[in-house]
Amino acid sequence: MDMSRRSQHLLLLMCATFLVWGISLWNGFVWDDRILIQKNEATISRVSLTTAFFSDFWSTETESGTSNYYRPLVTLSYMLDYAVYGLHPSGYHATNLLIHAACVASLFYLLVLLGLSSGGAALAAAVWAIHPAVAESVAWISGRTDSLATMFMLLAVVAAVRGCQVKGAGQRWVRHFAAFFGAALLCKESAIVTPLLAVVFLVLAGKRSRIDRNFLWTSMAVCAGWFLLRWSVLDRPVGTETGEGASSTIAVL
């Protein structure tokens, strides 16, 4: 009965999400979309892991400028969208909407894991699902970086919580945590706070004493690997100004 109720609440959440943001499917390409997608057709027209993982995010066929943004999974998502939709913006917006729906579902599941009732978790997730503050991430194609990173961050936190709940399966969840954390970092630099968020949620759930040390070492290893990748690909892996992604002034925000 409880599972049935959760399924109903999740279904209502998804309906609310698609009802509110479905109008974005009629949006076109705006601002950065034109540089990253329309004018970058020569790059995204082929699904290339080499191009995605060994290029500056803003290094395109038409823009010679460089940044210190390293977001290969976002570039890869554009490549996959192009393979399916070409240069029809509605398809890219559909992907944005699906990513946001996955974020909402992940948050709902996380809140249930933390002990909230199905109704309470659905209400909390619904506030975020339809809040105007997420409009840029959902309705703007180039805002996908936030939603995609958030999805993987939430999944990483879920893995951390599950690792403290399931006896004898800790190592498996540590590996899941590492994969999701790494994926989040490959979407946006600010995802580096994921381990801190995981600890906060675990403390709120009263599981501080059960936090596996492997999560700490795994987090450090993932961060080291990510930074080495940045260092090998980018001209400026660490910036000096607040608007440069991974900044020496404000860490990674």
Classification by helices and strands: mainly alpha
Mean pLDDT score:
87
Q: Rg to the nearest angstrom?
A: 19 Å
Q: What overall form do the CA principal axes indicate?
A: flat
Largest sheet: none
Walk me through what this model shows:
It is a single chain. Helices cover 64% and strands 0% of the residues. It has helices spanning 2-21, 32-38, 41-44, 49-53, 72-85, 89-113, 118-130, 135-139, 144-165, 170-185, 194-204, 213-233. The model is unreliable at 246-253 (pLDDT under 50). The N and C termini lie far apart (43 Å). With 253 residues, it is an all-alpha fold.
What's the layout of helices and strands?
Elements: H1 2-21, H2 32-38, H3 41-44, H4 49-53, H5 72-85, H6 89-113, H7 118-130, H8 135-139, H9 144-165, H10 170-185, H11 194-204, H12 213-233
